Each structure stands twice: as C-alpha cells, then as structure tokens.
Amino acid sequence: MSIYEELESNVRSYCRSFPVSFNRAKMSKMYSEDGREYIDFFNGAGALNYGHNNDYIKKRIIEYIENDGISHALDLHTKVKEDFLATFRDLILKPRALDYKVMFCGPTGTNAVEAALKLSRKVKKRTGIFALTGSFHGMTLGSLSISSGKTPRAGAGLPLTGVTFIPHPYNHPEIDTIAYMEELMTDEYSGVEKPAAVFIETVQAEGGVIPLSDKFIRDLRELCDRQDVLLVVDDIQVGCGRTGKFFSFERAGIVPDMVTLSKSISGYGLPMALLLIRPELDIWKPAEHNGTFRGNQLAFVGAKAALEYREKNGLEEKTRQNEDLIREFVTERLLPMDKNLRYRGIGMIHGVDFGAVEIEDAAGLVARECFLNGLVIERAGRGDCVLKIMPALTIEEDELIKGLEIIEKSMKKVLLGNK
Ligand SMILES: Cc1ncc(COP(=O)(O)O)c(C=O)c1O
Fold first, then answer.
1. Which residues are CB-neighbours of 9 under 8 A, at least 6 positions away?
2. Are the C-beta atoms of 339 and 415 separated by less than 8 Å?
3. Which of 70, 214, 365, 373 falls between 20 and 30 A from 185, CA-CA?
4. Considering the entire predicted model, what is its pTM?
5. DSSP assignment, residue 52?
6. Strand runs (DSSP E) across 249-317, as ranges?
7. Ligand 1 centroid vs 44 CA: distance in angstroms?
8. CA 205 / ligand 1 centre spacing (Å)
C-alpha cells in the first residue's frame, strides 16, 4: 500500500488520473521519478500559464529569498506588494482605462469568490445571486452555492441557498436567456427576488469549455445596468491571458463591477487571489473580510515578474497564433474521426466533447491513453466527457504539436481501434 493509500484522504482526485510521482518540471514538460517525460496540457488547472519554473520569474523569486525578503506579512505594507500594485496599475489597469480597487483575499480562488458574494450582498442589500447552469466557482459554502455540479454540492452537508440558476445560453439556444432573467427580476409573480449580482465565467472551464458569446456578455451588462444588479466576472481560470487578452471579458468590450483573479496571477503557481472592485463599491469596513494569508510575498514577486514577462514576450500574439494552430489541428485531424464529436475553444482553452460519442467513457479512455503516451491532460464538464486542452501560454510550437499528435494517436486507438 502506498503512503497515499495509507495516509492521504480519499478526497484526493487528480493524482488518481495520473498515478505516478512527479519530481521535476520545466515550462511545458513534467518528469516523473521513474524518469519519464510528459507534456503538460493540464497546466495546474490554469495556474501555470507561464509554464513550470519559468526562468524569468524564478530568478526574481530566488533573489528575493536570498536577500531575506520578508516572506509573511499579513496585509502589512511591503516593498513587493507596493511594486506589484504599481505594476498591475501600469501594465494592466491603465492601458485598459480600468478603474478598480484591488482587494487581496485569502490565497485561493474560492476566497475571492466569497469576498465578491459578500460584497455584492452588502452593496445591494439583497441576498439573491444569479448564476448559470454549468458554472463552477469553488468549494467553500458560498462559492459552492453558486456552482451547479450535483456531486460537489452534495458534499456541502447543508442546503445551499440564495442562488437562482439560469439555463446557460449555449445549452439552451431556444431560450432568450436575457429576457428570461429580466422577467425573473421584474415580474412580481416570478417568485424570485431581484438578485444582488449575476456571476458568470465568460468561458466555463470546469463546466466543459463552454464560452459565452460577446453579444450575450454585452447584453448581460446592459441588463444589469438597467436593473441595478451587479455583474461579477469570475476570471480565476480563464483570466491572465488564457483567452488571449489579459481579462477574458475584454473581447466583449464590457467592464464588470467586480472581477475575481487567482490561479495564474502569481505567475509561478504560488497561492494568490484578488478581487477587483469598482471604487464606489468598495464599502468594506477595515478587517470586515480578513485572513492570515492575504499577502503571499513570494507570489507578489512572481506576479510582478509575470506581468513584465507577458509584455516582453508578446504572449497575447503568441496565444492568437496557437489558437489558430489548435483549432486547425482539432478541426482537420480530430473531429473527422467521429461525427458525434463536438468542439469549442478560444485562445488557449479548447474542449473536445465526447458526450454524444457512442463508446462509453470515451473521453476517459482517451485521457488515460494520452497519459500512457506521455501527455498530462484533464477532462471537464458533465460526465467528465470533455477533453480539456489547456497548455501553458508559453508552450513551444513543437511541443504543442507533439501533444496534439498524442491526442490524435490516443483517439485513433479508442475511437477507431488502431493499435
Ligand atoms: C472559474 C473558477 N472559479 C473559482 C475556482 C476556485 O478556485 P480555487 O480552487 O483556487 O479555490 C476555480 C477553480 O477551478 C475556477 O475554475
């Protein structure tokens, strides 16, 4: 029995899909203790947009540690926090004419979502929240309440209330979702209180790579303005350049009232989470939402370096080129294998949907075959039927193609029976 079976809780999950022990990683490659090399299309579930151990970022962090930079400081003023804030203002907010206050939350994404929920309710003095079916916002009680998956919800152990789920427009093109929401908000017989906020992911990542259209995002912004409801964009997984631009909502030309960021914001896979708040909504009292780990100083160092790296290396343009490459590969070489395959993708997040394929657990079989062939790739969505292609934004073209070819080979074996 391994130490994991002996000691680690049953709750462990990803390690079950990739049952080796990893001991090294560099950019888009991971290495297991037995010396095998893997291409990483999993990307720390979105936390490693700049790759593993990116040298530019690593150098800054090592220098900081070697100089005995302060490593824990609650929310005290520190030089690296100041530097991060100034860089975030100059490289991200100012060029986009965005006016946000930055709230440092506890270190994981769900902390930022909890803060956004609390603040929305406090600002609007209403309890309800609208969220879309298929959404995933985290595992603590508030964020779980606005996440729609039955299994994680069942783990809550008590009723999750205060949310109204709205059918996602991708799955329900026959419904005018905006009109439906407006009716719920305005009809005094709808049975639903007007919400404090609508929470969206512009692309549902855990939900199976399901993007909202630019038009829908714009129409939702208008609806929220008309009805005096806040719009919160959860950019924890698809922010930080994943869809091309730094923020995923930029493509629709809207400005949310609040934005959550985490995962890749620290640049180095270190824990960090932010809530961006329109200044007039920042009505927190000091210490009203507190936490011991609201300022991982190494993460600040990494985050500043990552924002610089992004600009210096033209990651936005590289993402556009890789988007075309992935789309062409999937369309020309993967989809023809089975007429029931479906595909969605934007920037560097793409999903091949096996939901309608006749082979049982086809996506699971393909993912397992990929792993045997040296590719780490995860699944998402209903029944885990979507193969999620999410490499680091820094991946080299030859590695990207090699990874895609492993998917092709694995799909041929599972779908077409090729050895
Ligand atoms: C969109 C989104 N929101 C929130 C979270 C929760 O983040 P964390 O796991 O860091 O709490 C995730 C995690 O996958 C996510 O994808």
1. none
2. no
3. 214
4. 0.98
5. B
6. 258-261, 274-277
7. 11
8. 9
Backbone φ and ψ of 131, nearest 5°: -135, 160
pLDDT tens sequence across 386-405? 999 999 999 999 999 999 99
| Arithmetic mean of pLDDT, 353-378 | 98
For residue 120, which of 50, 196, 177, 57 has the smallest C-alpha distance?
196
Name residues whose C-beta falls within 8 Å of residue 415's C-beta, 6 or more positions apart in sequence: 337, 338, 357, 359, 362, 366
Q: Which residues line ligand 1 (CB under 6 A)?
A: 45, 108-110, 113, 136-138, 201, 205-206, 234, 236-237, 262
What architecture (CATH level 2) is domain 3-54+314-416? Alpha-Beta Complex (3.90)
Every domain of the chain and the residues it spans: 3-54+314-416, 70-312
Angstrom distance (rounded) from CA 402 to CA 394: 15
pLDDT in tens, 267-296: 999 999 999 999 999 999 999 999 999 989
Q: What is the pLDDT of residue 92?
A: 98
Residue 229 to residues 130, 146, 278: CA-CA distances in angstroms? Answer: 10, 16, 14
Site to substitute for ligand 1 among 146, 212, 263, 265, most atoms within 8 A of C-beta: 263
Nearest CA to ligand 1 atom 7: 109
Q: How far is CA 179 from the centre of its chain?
A: 28
Span from the CA of 336 to the centroid of ligand 1 (angstroms): 33
**Ligand 1 pocket mutation pick from 42, 136, 243, 296 by most atoms within 8 angstroms of CB:** 136
User: Is residue 349 pLDDT above 80, yes or no?
Assistant: yes
| Top CATH class, 70-312 | alpha beta
pLDDT of residue 371: 98
Closest atom of ligand 1 relative to the 271 alpha carbon: 10
